[in-house]
Amino acid sequence: MLYQVPEPKIFTCTQSAGLAERIAESFGTSLGKINFSRYSDGEFQPSFEESIRGMRVFLIGSTNPSSENLMEMLLMLDAAKRASARHITAVMPYFGWARQDRKDKPRVPIAAKLVAKMLEAAGATRIITMDLHADQIQGFFEKPVDHLFASTLFLPYLKSLELPNLTIASPDMGGSKRAYAYSKHLNCDVVVCYKQRAVANTISHMELIGQVEGKNVVLVDDMVDTAGTLTKAADLMMERGALSVRAISTHPLLSGEAYERIENSQLTELIVTDSIPLKRESKKIRVISCADLFADVMQRVHHNTSISSKFLM
Question: Where does the record place the Ribose-phosphate pyrophosphokinase N-terminal domain (predicted)?
Answer without folding.
Answer: 9-123
